[in-house]
């Protein structure tokens, strides 16, 4: 375990070890928040991260996690979570339709959940506070759909924003804004199975130089910001 600039990180030798660690971390926080407030709000990013969560569907976690108390955002439906507790972005609508309108609809959904006391506001009262966000980083240092050189990283007056010229397909997307991401109680960034040469360079730029040109370098959280890296991603640290 290591720490620098309030970031904690751990390097894993295999994808399986990293998957087990993500499951353990998530299960611990699920138990903590379900006990404290009767529910658990978790944000999942797409890509390989969903596959890395497969250990949650195996013993000892599968039968011990209180799935019915989970409220899940940006997720593909794989476990026994009630449909009413899943708040997914319609990626096809965002990609093929009006991304700006889609972002507004998703923000309205979040604001309604605040009114229903499912989502609390963070201490400054401006943004929703999720219990845990499980994030991934692209080789260029992007996270969510916040990309280097694009203005969405600077949006502060919205909870959800949109992009129409994403450098990664599809070009039209919607994304949580940086203040919403950083308002989470816990943020876990997992970087694994990226075989590009750019990925370890981006990791080194973030951890050694705090290169804020890379969106992932801005990642913080109210309680803990944890990075789980495989040995390839951490090779230049």
Automatic annotation (TrEMBL):
Family annotation (InterPro entries): 6-phosphogluconolactonase_DevB, 6PGL, Glc/Gal-6P_isomerase, NagB/RpiA_transferase-like
Uppermost EC category: hydrolase
Enzyme Commission no: 3.1.1.31
Superkingdom of origin organism: Eukaryota
Catalytic activity, reaction form: 6-phospho-D-glucono-1,5-lactone + H2O = 6-phospho-D-gluconate + H(+)
Glucosamine/galactosamine-6-phosphate isomerase domain sequence ranges: 14-79, 80-227
Molecular-function GO term, any one: 6-phosphogluconolactonase activity
Record-level GO BP terms: carbohydrate metabolic process; pentose-phosphate shunt
Pathway involvement of the protein, from the record: Carbohydrate degradation; pentose phosphate pathway
PANTHER family: 6-PHOSPHOGLUCONOLACTONASE, 6-PHOSPHOGLUCONOLACTONASE 5-RELATED
UniProt record similarity statement: Belongs to the glucosamine/galactosamine-6-phosphate isomerase family. 6-phosphogluconolactonase subfamily.
Name under which the protein is recorded: Probable 6-phosphogluconolactonase
